[in-house]
Amino acid sequence: MNIFKKKQILFLFCLLFSVFACEDLDELVENPNGIDPENSNLNLILSTVLTETGMTVVDLGYGDIAGVMQHTQKDAWFSGHNDYDWSDQSWADYYSILVDNEKVYEKSVEQGLEFQQGVTMVMKAYLFGTIADLWGDAPFTYAIQGDLGGSEYLTPAYDSQSEIYHGIIEYLQSANTLLSKDAEEYDEIYEEGDVFYEGDPAKWRKLANSLMLRYYMRLSEKEPTFAQSGIEAIMADQNTYPVITESGDDALMDFLSDKSENSWPGNSELTDVSGSEYRRKKMCATLVDKMQELTDPRLELWAQKVEIPLVVDETLSAGTDTIIDNVRYLATDAIGEESIDTDPEYVGLPPSVSALPSSYNLNPTPGQLSYNPHVSYLNERYTQASGDFLQSRLLTASEVNFILAEAAQRGWSVAGDAQSYYEAAVLASFEYWGVDDQYSDYILGEAAFDGTLAQIIEQKWISNWAAASESWFDYRRTGYPELVAGPAADRSVLPVRFYYMTDELLINSTNANEAVDALEETSYTQADGKNSAWAKFWLLQGTTKPW
User: Fold this and answer.
1) Which contiguous run of DSSP H or E holds residue 175?
2) In 108-236, which ranges are E strands?
3) Cβ burial, residue 14 (10 Å; 0-12/13-18/19+)
4) For residue 244, what are the contacts with CB-CB under 8 A and spacing of at least 6?
5) Per-residue pLDDT for 12 more than 70?
6) Alpha carbon of 107 to those of 103, 113, 256: distances in Å?
7) Which of 246, 264, 375, 441 has its C-alpha lying 20 to 30 A from 82's C-alpha?
8) How many Å apart are CA 335 and CA 517, to the nearest integer?
9) Can you tell me the distance from the alpha carbon of 467 to that of 376, in angstroms, rounded to the nearest whole number?
10) In what order do the strands lie in the sheet with 327-330?
11) Could you tell me the pLDDT band of residue 36, with boundaries at 50, 70 and 90?
């Protein structure tokens, strides 16, 4: 499920035929869960669509995008995570899920199953929206229709990023209508297979409308009038357009401990029993320092305290470097010119700190197999295959309230003020993480609302721990939080998009290269040309954001 790995040669055929809905899907590519879309119960296929989507969300937001957004850093096998050393990023996983999703939609239309139609419309919007968010222009109108035959479907034209965003909003409006009935009015709801909402149409309806809020806000810089009118219309009629405002309605998927492919990524119980994947991922100093500044109680849920703190003592004899009672004491001359962090509790790894990040903070055993006792690892819960908080979060009440806080801060009419929505957003996150008993002290302290967009987005960035992709999308359009690329990064600024993959450029060359031509080169694209992680797609062109 790692979207950054190079796909096997099978995907050359998958992209030409299956990704765009080939006539014979099962002859070309085996579904990851062994389901034949032509002959299986559509509810079982829908369950696969939901679980595979949930896994891709975590792979993205807990993976390399967590490195970009400086939630985490790695000290081994780190170049993609820390330094943005990317290339040839495949969207095959997303289109593969869309193929199965379309089979469910088509069957549900044939059988008159409106609940399944509504859910698949939501998932279609979610997946196509993510593709547009990551790459920009992409196959949309003529995608996943290869069974109709003809080159227009097998090598489809690309829709503009703008057209995709407007199209998915239309999908979500249709889903809102399809999901507007009481549960007992629908046929054949398979509650056990719905890993997000157990077949509850009211919650799916809220997700559809909350996704509309997300994508209207996505367009706030490029099409502000359209974005404002869309959000105001939803908030003016909550009976027709209910949204997620309480954490009990969050779109969450649990991971399982039955087998590796269903478990939390990088866990040490099933996926990597050596523990190396867990050990090489560290907290990033950017996030740690901000949370310490705010006295944020969520930090201890996400991070471990350093095993051996550092203490620099001017009174020690020259050359002293010794461990006493699990504390490493150093004379001033023993640290040389190196910058170190002597925090006694939490120490993050600075972003893209060097070509040898495992050496940071005087680690005595740098290298690919090192164990650094002077930097904070992630909380041990992330070694587990499943458990509390090991969930895929598609969209939450915290995010919705942050969106509404931003809308109110912009002066839009959203049935509430920016401070109330901001505080509700923080509270929803605290409730999710089980620290709501500490909310009052927090919100009256350094996190007290100051009325700025910067603070709203910064708090949203914190709340998006383990789901960092949405913070990346916010950063691109707002420039917040104000993150700085580290000294060893591939560029001096953060990337803003994914590369179109080589296979697509070869197979669907005319259409793919037209999409590349629509990108805007910047001073940071350098030798990449237009197909660069630092080229700007439509959403960012002309906005001066994020840089």
Assistant:
1) helix 161-178
2) 138-139, 158-159
3) buried
4) 206, 207, 210, 250, 251, 395, 396, 397, 400
5) no
6) 6, 8, 29
7) 264
8) 51
9) 20
10) 310-312, 327-330, 321-324
11) low
Q: What is the pLDDT of residues 55-98, one digit of tens each?
A: 999 999 999 999 999 999 999 999 999 999 999 999 999 999 99
Question: By the 8 A CB rule, do 360 and 375 touch?
Answer: yes
Tell me how far apart the alpha carbons of residues 435 and 438 are, in angstroms, rounded to a whole number.
6
Question: C-alpha distances in angstroms, 248 versus 126, 160, 206, 245, 297?
Answer: 20, 36, 12, 9, 21
Pull the structure tokens for residue 435: 């620290």
Dihedral of CA atoms 396, 251, 472, 223 in degrees, nearest 10, equals: -80
DSSP label at 527?
A: G
Q: pLDDT tens, 431-477? A: 999 999 999 999 999 999 999 999 999 999 999 999 999 999 999 99
Q: Is the peptide bond before 546 cis (omega within 30 degrees of 0)?
A: yes
Q: Specify the DSSP class assigned to residue 520.
A: B
Beta bridge partners of 328: 310, 323
Which residue in this structure is represented by tokens 């699990």? 326
Whole-number Å distance between alpha carbons of 204 and 25: 28
Contact between 221 and 542 (Cβ < 8 Å): no
Q: What are phi and psi of 72, to 5 degrees?
A: -135, 165
Evaluate if pTM is beyond 0.85: yes
Separation CA 109–CA 89 (nearest Å): 34
- Quick one: 83 exposed, middle or buried, by C-beta within 10 A (0-12, 13-18, 19+)? buried
Cα distance between residue 372 and residue 369, in whole Å: 10
Query: Residue 542, Cβ neighbours under 10 Å: how many?
Result: 11
HSE (side-chain half, CA atoms, 13 Å) at 3 = 29
pLDDT, average across residues 227-248: 97
H or E segment and range at residue 321: strand 321-324
Question: 3-class DSSP state for residue 322?
Answer: strand
